[in-house]
Amino acid sequence: MSAGERGVFNAAYEPLLFAVDRVPFPESGREQETLDAFETFCASGHVAALLLEPLVLGAGGMKIYPASVLSELKRIAERHRSLFIADEVMTGWGRTGPLFACEQAGIAPDILCTSKGLTGGALPLAATLCTAEIFDAHLSTDRRRTFFHSSSYTANPIACAAALANLEIWMTEPVRARVEALEAKQRSRLQRFEGDPRFCNIRQVGTIAALDLAVPVGGYLSEVGPRLRAFFRERRLLIRPLGNVIYLMPPYCVTDADLDRAYDAIDEAASAFVAGRL
Predict the structure, then answer these.
(1) Beta bridge mates, 57
(2) Cα distances (angstroms) measured from residue 56 to each of 64, 159, 171, 185, 258
(3) Which helix (DSSP H) or strand (DSSP E) does residue 69 occupy?
(4) 157-191 pLDDT tens trace
(5) How far apart are CA 26 and CA 30, in angstroms?
(6) Residue 6 forms part of a structural domain
(7) Alpha carbon distance 182, 174 (integer Å)
(8) Are 90 and 225 in a shared domain?
């Protein structure tokens, strides 16, 4: 929570949070500013680690940045011996195309956080992966060094069984082909909104598609968000906008008919907003 952006998500806990340095998001055409900022922080010799969501900033508005920035950030971290931590809770398990988003940049993080897709979304389970060097640094026979506060649900047998079943599917079924097919389907359906003045910033990475409804005041707390959510629920669709940002991350078993329903509803919602009915 301390590492995240300060705002509505964590305002109630502000007195408990510790200070961190933040690099600006690598906006298109301003990627070098992000790299320069991280380089400056690292040059101070006090950067323990860089923590980020690779390729897609999720709750921050489904903001996408190129793999080249990701690989350069990793290079800077390595040069200054700072750890590189990838939060792949959302981006992992094929969401951006490959199994993990870091693969698109040809890098391996020092620490990788995964969840959600680990069980195919069936049950809550998370795992933290790390390099052998980091693991060995924490390995000890001294019981006083045990992580005592993580045992209540650690390795929950039912959740782990779901994860193993999901891994079996990844290894034995054509999941990657399904991911590639869904990526193409999302791309073709997004094209209907290209040049549409009702929307802006139409974007996609892997199976994640997003577009912003053109409103006077955008952002996560945009008043149109709850109205959009209610609009979609009335049509029995689980689409949860981030304010005016509408995004789709369908399950890999989604049908063409389901996708058409979702995109038709997005089209209808935009028309209703322009007409003042939303």
Answers:
(1) 63
(2) 5, 27, 26, 20, 24
(3) helix 67-79
(4) 999 999 999 999 999 999 999 999 999 999 999 99
(5) 6
(6) no
(7) 13
(8) no
